[in-house]
């Protein structure tokens, strides 16, 4: 499903689920703890997108799964109670430069209207920190390991080890890049960042290049 249509498709599913339950906007607002009719209308029309907590409230009131409302599944009902217990934000490559700042704003509901959320497995959920986000691959620098349009789950609170895949911010660049971490010495902090496609250059840290490690890749979702 194209990202450009995701908000309208979410709105369509909310509207259809509400009508199937025979609820007015006012009644749905009451069932969800007082959500305003204007917000519900904006969501149904696809001009805004509800955040993770709001999706959970809507799903409970409409008797459907959160994953169905977020267009992550066509199954309306839960197959397993814990299957969709965590949604994390999909950040763009510019937002990921200050990932923790954006994640905090999202958690405080200061920045959530135009975001897409990704569902993570319950197995991974137990290992993720509150500073986790998703990132879409936009180039072929890491092929064959990561392909164009793959989605990576990234955790900002995990310390990197040799051979780990990282998301990094290079000084002077407005966007993050994905690379592989290589230690150059057992006794010093020097390291190199590798690309897997020979057409893309590696990044040697310390030669006038300042690198900030944003987070470690902990899961890959193929072909989003």
What characteristics describe this protein?
elongated, Umud Fragment, subunit A, alpha+beta, 2 domains, 27% helix, 434 Repressor (Amino-terminal Domain), 224 residues, 9-stranded mixed beta sheet
Average pLDDT level: 84
- CATH evolutionary superfamily of the largest domain: Umud Fragment, subunit A
Helix amount, in percent?
Answer: 25-40%
How many domains? The number is 2
- Please state how the strands of the largest beta sheet are arranged side by side: 2-1-3-4-9-5-6-7-8
Helix-strand pattern = HHHHHEHEHEEEEEEE
Alpha-carbon Rg, integer: 20 Å
Question: What's the CATH class label of the largest domain?
Answer: Mainly Beta
Q: What is the tally of beta strands?
A: 9
């Amino acid at each position: 499903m194209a990202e450009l249509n995701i908000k309208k498709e979410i709105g369509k599913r909310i509207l259809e689920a509400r009508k199937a339950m025979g609820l007015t906007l006012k009644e749905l607002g009451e069932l969800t703890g007082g959500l305003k009719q204007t917000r519900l209308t904006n969501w149904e029309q696809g001009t805004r997108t509800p955040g993770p907590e709001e999706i959970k409230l809507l799903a409970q009131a409409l008797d459907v799964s959160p994953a169905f409302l977020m267009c992550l599944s066509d199954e309306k009902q839960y197959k397993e109670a814990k299957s969709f217990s965590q949604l994390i934000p999909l950040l763009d490559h510019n937002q990921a430069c200050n990932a923790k700042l954006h994640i905090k704003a999202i958690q405080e509901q200061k920045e959530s209207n135009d975001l897409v959320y990704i569902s993570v497995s319950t197995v991974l959920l137990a290992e993720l920190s509150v500073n986790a986000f998703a990132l879409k691959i936009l180039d072929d620098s890491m092929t064959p390991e990561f392909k164009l349009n793959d989605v990576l789950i990234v955790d900002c609170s995990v310390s990197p080890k040799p051979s780990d895949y990282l998301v990094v911010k290079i000084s002077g660049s407005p966007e993050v890049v994905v690379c592989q971490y290589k230690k150059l010495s057992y006794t010093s902090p020097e390291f190199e960042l590798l690309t897997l496609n020979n057409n893309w250059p590696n990044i040697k840290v310390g030669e006038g290049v300042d690198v900030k490690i944003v987070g470690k890749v902990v899961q890959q979702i193929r072909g989003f």
